Amino acid sequence: STIGRAKAEVLAERFRDKVSGLDAGELRIAANSTTILYLLPDIVAKFRQKQPNVRLSLHNAITADGTDLLRSDAADLVVGSLLDVPSDLSYETVHRFEQMLITPPGHPLSHASALTLAQIAAHPLILPPRRQVTWRLVDRVFQQQRLPYTVSLEVGGWEVIKQYVALGMGISIVPALCLAPEDARQLAIRPAGQLFPARTYGVAIRRGWPLSAQARAFIECIKP
To answer: Which residues contact 136 (CB under 8 A, 6 or more apart)?
Structure first.
């Protein structure tokens, strides 16, 4: 009968899910806007192709808030940057991106022969807000060298920062991840990896908590 065939198809589908270790379900990921905008699109597309029936939800949160979501069981994974890993979390770095200096075209630093921290500190910086990893990373480097510097503007979002730099309102240090070839039309871009440590992105999970099959499958998609 039609009903019998339908039941058989449902049972067969459930059996396939059990064999694969996935029962559809939902995977909740916390990530900041940079990760969602620049890093995750290809990864999500790969995961969708492999696991089309898993409901995927992305929580847009800075990494510090994402770890709180993880602890409260409102997220299964955090994807992003962690400078200091809390003892109750495990963090694995998956991608590294060189830090780049962006300035307006024709800016003195765009053609300086040997770039130094002191040269950068002499110009106003445009950075993301203080709670975010980039601000803390840049601040740590200048503090270690005891170099005073000025932040002329704190603003969220690399696209906004790039626009303000292009308008001549300051310079910035950005991860190569957020730069596209067309940015070279309105910005001068040069590597700053010799001055600032690479920006790392990885996956944070709760230490000692079992991972779902969905989470394990997503982590596999994140790896290069």
So the answer is: 83, 130
Radius of gyration of the chain (CA): 22
pLDDT tens readout for residues 109-120:
998 888 999 999
- Distance (Å, whole) CA 123 – CA 60: 32
Across the strands, what pairs with 93?
202
Pairing of strands 77-80, 26-31: parallel
d(CA 135, CA 154): 9
If one counts every other C-beta atom within 10 angstroms of the C-beta of residue 6, the result is 10
Q: Is the pLDDT of residue 178 over 60?
A: yes
Q: What is the DSSP string of 191-207?
A: E-TTTSPPEEEEEEEET
* Amino acid (1-letter code) at residue 218: F
State the Cα–Cα distance between residues 174 and 47, nearest whole angstrom: 27
Q: How far apart are CA 46 and CA 48, in angstroms?
A: 5
CB 63 within 8 A of CB 128: no
Distance separating alpha carbons of residues 68 and 120, to the nearest angstrom: 35
Q: Report the SS3 class of residue 53.
A: coil
Paired with 202 in beta bridges are 80, 93
pTM more than 0.85: no
